[in-house]
Specification:
Two copies of one chain form a homodimer. Helix content of chain A is 71%, strand content 0%. Chain A is mainly α. The first copy, chain A, has two domains: 62 residues, Arc Repressor Mutant, subunit A (Orthogonal Bundle), CATH 1.10.10; 133 residues, Orthogonal Bundle (Tetracycline Repressor, domain 2). The radius of gyration of chain A is 20 Å and the shape is globular. At the A-B interface, helix 8 and helix 9 of A face helix 8 and helix 9 of B. Chain A binds a DNA duplex (30 and 30 nucleotides) through helix 1 and helix 3. Chains A, B: This is AcrR family transcriptional regulator.
Chain lengths: 196, 196
DNA sequence: CATCTTATGTAGCATTGCTAGATTTACTAA
DNA sequence: TTAGTAAATCTAGCAATGCTACATAAGATG
């Protein structure tokens, strides 16, 4: 059997189709999740949306969990990019302020996406080598922030991340009133901005 | 129909039985959750554990959600008490440090309980009048901390809570390595301790 | 004892995640 | 073109879940 040109093009087209369908699934999952919550993202519902039978979804991602995980990875990738942008185009002097604003904006504009990013059960820390690169990338944006500041940049970065995550999560789940959000962020920025 | 003494005693016994069974259900739910995760806390499993049929559970709490909510309330009550204790018996000078340690100790020693406390979907902020008293009580322990400090005690308290919650959550879900936990807490305490 | 109320159980529905096996479609080679 | 093979896709179904209508048993009351 010889690999003709046609064979190659066919294989490529198949790959494209596959990736397109994969993207369709993830897109549908995100849309439903944002509009109706993750509990309404069922495999049957997704298979309806993309007009394929259920087993097709299981061929792409091994399980429902797998679909959520893929969405979560997308989320980390996008968040990493958003943070990178915020870090590079610093507006009014303070990088910490810019990053904090970008982080919380991301969380508030895609609550379901943010939710799944952190409900994804991980077995490995953010800064570990065995961690998906998208997560490492996002975290590295925060690490960068405190580089050279004090003795332990990782500790400060983690603390900053934790504070942002806490604010995001307690806001998303309605524990915090939106009314004081600006003041909260101002206080946060003040705490994490050091002279020098 | 007259209410005899016997009638009263019978009614009281029934009430006791009911409360005992309620406690049994919640206790079983907590045990299973801590050992096997909340997904293994099914209504059938619980009804097996207490040797009653499913409808009995639905008579007590209207739904599975209702059972989790009741556990979450218990959790807030217990956390409030733990924080109160930590605030009153301040060991080495620093109240902030004592509270932070108590909070994280609570979260780490009952991860499933902590998890359900914050996955419970609320519609009302912590400091609202319409919030279950157990939640208000727990939050009030943190409010107390920064009373008189600066201009906005609520803002500082919320920020402190957010930081603690972020650390707890990112630790519980394995995002943070345990190894740096002590340093993280030290840095946190330093940030939130003000001269005076 | 008879009756009525309350407590409890039985059995079943609809929905879910997931999968084995049939079936159709797409490609290959004579 | 066509028979045969491999890949893609679907049909149908299982077991488990949350929940509930209805039947039955237990308990209290006259």
């Amino acid at each position: 059997m010889v690999k003709t040109l046609a064979t190659n093009r066919i294989a490529e087209r198949k790959l494209r189709d596959k990736q397109a369908r994969r993207a369709q699934i993830l897109s549908a999952a995100r849309r439903i999740a944002e509009l109706e919550g993750w509990s309404n993202v069922t495999v049957r519902r997704l298979s309806d949306e993309i007009s394929y039978s259920q087993p097709v979804l299981y061929a792409h991602f091994g399980s429902r969990e797998g679909i959520l995980a893929a969405v979560a990875i997308e989320g980390f990738q996008e968040m990493g990019l958003a943070l990178e942008k915020a870090r590079k185009r610093v507006k009014r002097g303070n990088t910490v302020e810019s990053i904090a604003a970008a982080y919380l904006e991301f969380a508030v504009s895609s609550p379901a996406l943010y939710e799944v990013m952190f409900s994804l059960s991980l077995s490995v820390p953010f800064d570990d080598a065995a961690t998906p690169p998208e997560l490492r990338f996002a975290f590295s944006q925060l690490l960068e922030l405190f580089q050279g500041q004090g003795s332990k940049p990782e500790v400060l970065s983690e603390l900053f991340w934790a504070s942002l995550h806490g604010i995001a999560e307690l806001t998303r789940t309605k524990r915090f009133p939106r009314s004081r959000q600006k003041e909260r962020v101002r206080a946060l920025v003040e705490l994490f901005t050091f002279p020098g």
